User: Fold these one by one.
Assistant:
Number 1:
Amino acid sequence: MKRKLVEFIYKIINSQFYKDLYDQNNRKAFLGEFKFLGESHSFPDNMIIKNPKYISIGNGFAAMYNLRIEAWDKYGEQKFFPEIYIGNNVVFNTDVHIGCINKIFIGDNVLLASRIYISDHSHGEVNSEALKVAPVHRKLYSKGPVIIENNVWIGENVSILPGVKIGSNAIIGANAVVTKDVPANSVVGGNPARIIKVLV
């Protein structure tokens, strides 16, 4: 009798209903860890979010699979005070990777295509001294925050590097590597990205 009771309880605990309930509770607890999280958001099942306590996300956020957002407050003996802000009605397609030790700001109504990399830092400064240390052991270094203003469209396979400001309504063409500021209302493309067209 005791064995049958144990088997019955085991089946209940391992049923799909309880697994779903456990996943829902864990997800709710996780979403509660953000610095701020607006209404009507959609996160994928497979994602990596490091230190959500430094991340604010507005209303109407949607992201597809393989989302990776990392706010690094510590790397080796280094300490940082990262800040990631994502505005309202922002959409990430697949494979978006954001890394922050300083500040990354993404305004309202920004659309990111797939395989996007945005970082405000690098492994070491670009100089001969850094070459004496393996990349993984170099101190993280930020040239400055990344600011992406409202209504920006970022195309497929784009990289946005530290210390860059992208003005409102800009369009970043596919495969671009953005190393310098992008004026508002402009289209840029290439590696490094250059102005192709001014829209206004």
Number 2:
Amino acid sequence: MTDHGPQPVERELPTEEARDLISLVRELIEREIKPRAAEEEAAGRFPRELFTLLSESGLLGLVQSEEFGGGDQPYEVYLQVLEELAAARLTVGLGVSVHTLACHALARYGSKEQRAEHLPAMLGGGLLGAYCLSEPSSGSDAAGLTTRATRDGDTWTIEGTKAWITHGGIADFYTVLARTGPERTRGISAFLVPAGTPGLSAAAPEHKMGMAGSPTAQIHLDGVRVPDARRIGEEGQGFAIALSALDAGRLGIAACAVGVAQAALDEALAYTAQRRQFGRPIADFQGLRFMLADMATQIEAGRALYLAAARLRDAGRPFSKQAAMAKLFCTDAAMRITTDAVQLLGGYGYTVDFPVERYMREAKVLQIVEGTNQIQRVVIARALAGPETG
């Protein structure tokens, strides 16, 4: 590799421990993820054994408390790990982000007894989580969910259907948001539901444009009974819990988007350096050089934006607007960059012999999950100009 080809990202990390962590992640990627990524995605194979390894390595609980088996790492570090994983295979990076989202409610709002009972296995015991908020008729309007939990003494019975659930059907536990009262936003509660609970089932996985290796499915809750001890937070606090989780989750999606974009740029740099036309590498042509320059600039800007939001979160300061901005910018940039990467490879970019067509298909979903980019604009505009008056 020359000095002018793809290079490892130079990361700003706060501690020597964080630098060692990134080195560990890169070694794991080269050994366990990259060699099989294309084959497993093409086959639609979810790498469950890899997630067991990630769990055993402490990579599924990086931001959680060390007291319960977490890594006590700041979001600034965790997100850069996510970026590295997503650049190698989005199914893995997004999977870690979703698992972290599924753990968020218990880790932040659960009682100490609940956390002590459940978190160690969720973070380092090989378990995999899923987050159940969206429904067939309530996606962007999360407060419009209709899945209902009815209390009978110390037990709740949950009825309803959740949609677009990453890890649906293969998760070991589900964080489920359900209606427990008539109030639109204050009538929702959160529950931790283990897989295998009678009445909980998954539909067949969706057939998607990309990310074939990551199962997405509807989850049916047909008379699912859970004890009140598995209700997370106060009754009626679920919507606030969901919004808190989404703010953090949007940063995860932003980091994943930068990872996919970086992978696309690296592939384009390698190709344009070795592909020759008219007697010289096509990277010599100004039109292509300008495309590469624009791609790299967008990646650096996106990385800076998600890290700035992460540092606000780590400092305990409000970061909702910045999380929405990061998710919006990074995912839109990933779509542009992956499309440009396909163009730079010409006809080869349109074939499955090169990974850029997969990156382009994967980038599209990042503009949709954790709130569409239209919703991100709503969040940002409300932060700037206040709620709509109409």
Number 3:
Amino acid sequence: MSSLALAARNSSTMLRRNLLHARRYPSLTLNLLLTPIMLLLLFVYVFGDTMSAGMGGGADRSAYIAYLAPGLLLMTIGSTTVGTAVSVSNDMTEGIVARFRTMPIHRGSVLTGHVVGSVLQSVASVVLVGAVAAAIGFRSTDATALEWLAAFGLLALFATALTWIAVGMGLVSPNAEAAGNNALPLIFLPLISSTFVPIDAMPGWFQPIAGYQPFTPAVETLRGLLLGTEIGHNGWLAPAWCLALCALGYFWSRSVFDGGRK
């Protein structure tokens, strides 16, 4: 069997393993998924009127739902990938990876199975949160089929980027609890982006912090694709961030995994 065929076969096996784990132990995924859903409901129904008034221009609650939903979809991805860091750390500390190392399998398939499984879970979580947003009033305005396809591609690319970062965090963490803590920035970063309020409404000293981080360009690009707002330089900055994070996470993860740490 060629090296490529072996890698594909072993990666498929590892993917099935990780999906079975997610199905048998859904509590972690569900707990992480509840965070963006609860924030969506909280900011729409508790803070919606106040937040929409702060946006000016006669905006109402429905306008704030439209503003908020794209950012919450990306936050959903960040929440889901925390579970990936925990899962990878469990594999490393419970000895199963040491067992895999003694078997004639492609070394990279272990990580590939985690990444592909996490991306699939992220996409499913985004669909669920999107359905909740649509149920409470979110509507895309005049988005074409090409724009919807571009939005889905951005979400998938963003999920892949954050997943590789989460895998690296899981590999270097001494236990599952530390992995969950190390991955918390993937949930907190959307809170200091343009997800909830425009950057112009933030204090001047804080605007560069919110503007020059990966979530804000992705949020603004997704918002532009679905709502027709101006995308500007975010159109190339968002995929650039994704590709940079993918490369960083991949080489970091492979370096740690192939180095045999832990």
Number 4:
Amino acid sequence: MRPDTPAENVDHTAEAARLERIAGLYPEDAEALLLRAAAHLELSGDRPAATALYDRLLSSPDGLDDPPLVRALKASNLWEYGHEAEARAIIEGIRLAAPRDPAPWVIVAEALEGHDELEAAEETFTEGARLLLPTDAEPPAATHPLLYGRHRVRRMLGLAHDDWDTLADTLHASPVSLDELHDPKRIWSLGSDNPVELAAEISRLQAELGAYREALSRPFPVAVLHWPASELTELLSAYPTLAAEYPSHETHLSTIESSLRELSSSGTGNLGIVTGTVPSYEAFAASEQSSPEDMTLLPQYATTLAARGRAVAWPPQRGAGCWCGAAEGYEGCHGA
């Protein structure tokens, strides 16, 4: 399924089964693929099967990249089909663990909000924001949902704007302001007999839906392949003919940055970088029934990694480290 496929045209059960099969073929990506499969199972209405997938991930002997995220998704799903006590216990555990990733905070806060626990939701959004928002720099894009969710809940509670609410208004790029989108009185417009009020509410809802679609249905990035120094050394040692493509690691890094800038200046959006490994590349070449020395495989390999969710967005957020792995920030390294 393409990421931009309309939801009404998706067989969620079949898509979940497909993703589970792919996870078996690519165990290094199993966590991301099985999370997507669980989401499809939730959309299909088979919430117990989604919980079984979350439990499968949490019991994985190899460990997870983001256990708090999986626990948060499990808690949200459990609450939706009657397991409130267990969901609350998991949510409390996540809050006590204080994860350094915004996603678990947003998921558990929205679960509380969705069950009319507005005060607890506001406290959870605020805890996450206090922990993760930088004090002297622009908030990273990943933290924006914390601010937006906190703004929404505070509007429903009738609380006055504070500095973070103002910041959320500033960061929000939709034509309809957050204050309008989160106005509690909007619910009354939906029951109005006035065509003007109904038309205005439809316009607001369309703007809100457009923002969600842009965030959730964006196709995978146009990605450029990056080899860390050790991996490139191993690659060229095993396949010397690829030296024509990669004369040196420094040249390779410079080429990545210049290629991305050229794509950006030509109007190409949604750019990213994927990091290759020699075993993964060899497995890909074998699946294509070709030799790893075939240079035409390199862009195909990059596209495959991007489709499997391995791409990191380019350019990095302001103040973030450089994509090349250097200790200094992007602005002082390849972004200079």
